[in-house]
Automatic annotation (TrEMBL):
<feature type="transmembrane region" description="Helical">
    <location>
        <begin position="222"/>
        <end position="248"/>
    </location>
</feature>
<dbReference type="GO" id="GO:0005886">
    <property type="term" value="C:plasma membrane"/>
</dbReference>
<protein>
    <submittedName>
        <fullName>ABC transporter permease</fullName>
    </submittedName>
</protein>
<keyword id="KW-0472">Membrane</keyword>
<feature type="transmembrane region" description="Helical">
    <location>
        <begin position="192"/>
        <end position="210"/>
    </location>
</feature>
<feature type="transmembrane region" description="Helical">
    <location>
        <begin position="123"/>
        <end position="145"/>
    </location>
</feature>
<feature type="transmembrane region" description="Helical">
    <location>
        <begin position="35"/>
        <end position="57"/>
    </location>
</feature>
<feature type="transmembrane region" description="Helical">
    <location>
        <begin position="6"/>
        <end position="23"/>
    </location>
</feature>
<feature type="transmembrane region" description="Helical">
    <location>
        <begin position="63"/>
        <end position="81"/>
    </location>
</feature>
<dbReference type="Pfam" id="PF03649">
    <property type="entry name" value="UPF0014"/>
</dbReference>
<feature type="transmembrane region" description="Helical">
    <location>
        <begin position="93"/>
        <end position="117"/>
    </location>
</feature>
<dbReference type="InterPro" id="IPR005226">
    <property type="entry name" value="UPF0014_fam"/>
</dbReference>
<keyword id="KW-0812">Transmembrane</keyword>
<keyword id="KW-1133">Transmembrane helix</keyword>
<comment type="similarity">
    <text>Belongs to the UPF0014 family.</text>
</comment>
Length: 263
C-alpha cells in the first residue's frame, strides 16, 4: 500500500530546488529564472492533471479519450518542433503525423493486443500509457529532425554535387537519413541497456510504491520499454522520411530555400 504524501511534504521537497538555484547563483550559470519557471510550471501542470485524471478515469466512451489523446499529440508535436533548430514549411504537420501514427498504433497494439484491456479505451490504462509513449516518441522525433536538418544544411554542397552527377535524391541523402534515424533511436536504446542495473525506471518504481509485487512491476516495465523502443524507431523514421520528401523533391533537387538553417 502506498504511503500518502501531504502538501507540506511536497513543499519540503520543493525546497530542494533551492540547491539548484544556489548552484546557479554561485557559478553564475544564469539559470535562476529557468529553475523557478520550470519548477512552478511542472507543479501547476501536475496538480491540474491530478484533478483532471479523476474525471477522465470515470469516462466510459472512447471519443473523449481519443480527443484527449489528440490534444496530447498536438502538444507533443509542438514540443518536438520547438526543440528542433532547423525549420522548413510543414515541419509541424510532419512531426504531428510521425508522432500520431507511431504512438497511437503502438499504444493500441499494447492495450488491445498485448495487455488485452477490455474495453481497449479504459482510461486508467489508455491515458497513462499513451502519455509515456508520446513523451518518448517526441524526444526521438525531435532529435531525428534536428540531426537531419543540421546535417542537410552542413552537407548541402556535397549533396548537391551528388545530385548534379546524376544521383537520385535517395542516393544523395541516404547517409543523412540513416544518421538522423539512428540519433532518434539512441536515447531509448541507451536507457534500455542500463535499466535494472544503473537505474530503476519510473513505471516500475511507481507500481512497487503503489503496492504491486516486484515481479508484476518488472513485467509491465519490460512490455512498455519494448513498445517505447518501437515507437521511437517508427516515429524517428517517419519524421525523417517526411522531412526528406519536403526538402528533396521528386525531381531529385535539394530545396535548400525551404530550410531555415540551424543557428
Amino acid at each position: 500500500m502506498s504511503v500518502p504524501i501531504s502538501l507540506f511534504q511536497v513543499v519540503l521537497a520543493a525546497a530542494l530546488m533551492l540547491l539548484s538555484a544556489l548552484l546557479s547563483w554561485r557559478l553564475r550559470l544564469g539559470l535562476g529564472r529557468d529553475i523557478l519557471t520550470a519548477g512552478t510550471r511542472m507543479t501547476v501542470q501536475l496538480l491540474l492533471v491530478g484533478l483532471i485524471l479523476g474525471w477522465v478515469f470515470a469516462l466510459r466512451s472512447p471519443w473523449p479519450i481519443l480527443g484527449i489523446g489528440l490534444v496530447m499529440t498536438v502538444l507533443a508535436a509542438q514540443a518536438a518542433v520547438g526543440r528542433t533548430r532547423g525549420r522548413y514549411p510543414g515541419i509541424f504537420l510532419d512531426a504531428f503525423a510521425a508522432i500520431f501514427g507511431s504512438s497511437f498504433v503502438l499504444t493500441g497494439l499494447m492495450l488491445g493486443g498485448i495487455l488485452q484491456i477490455r474495453p481497449w479505451f479504459e482510461a486508467q490504462y489508455a491515458v497513462p500509457i499513451l502519455g509515456m509513449v508520446l513523451g518518448n516518441t517526441l524526444t526521438g522525433v525531435s532529435l531525428a529532425l534536428d540531426r537531419f536538418t543540421s546535417d542537410l544544411d552542413h552537407n548541402r554542397s556535397a549533396i548537391e554535387e551528388r545530385l548534379a552527377l546524376g544521383a537520385t535524391r535517395w542516393e544523395a541523402a541516404r547517409g543523412t537519413v540513416r544518421a538522423a534515424v539512428r540519433t532518434g533511436m539512441l536515447p531509448t536504446l541507451n536507457s534500455m541497456a542500463v535499466m535494472g542495473i544503473v537505474s530503476l525506471p519510473g513505471m516500475m518504481t511507481g507500481q512497487i510504491l503503489a503496492g504491486a509485487s516486484p515481479a508484476v512491476a518488472v513485467r509491465y516495465q519490460i512490455v512498455i520499454m519494448f513498445v517505447l523502443a518501437a515507437s521511437s524507431a517508427l516515429g524517428s523514421l517517419g519524421a525523417v522520411l517526411l522531412a526528406y520528401r519536403a526538402l528533396l523533391d521528386s525531381r531529385d533537387r535539394l530545396r535548400g530555400e525551404r530550410l531555415k538553417a540551424p543557428r
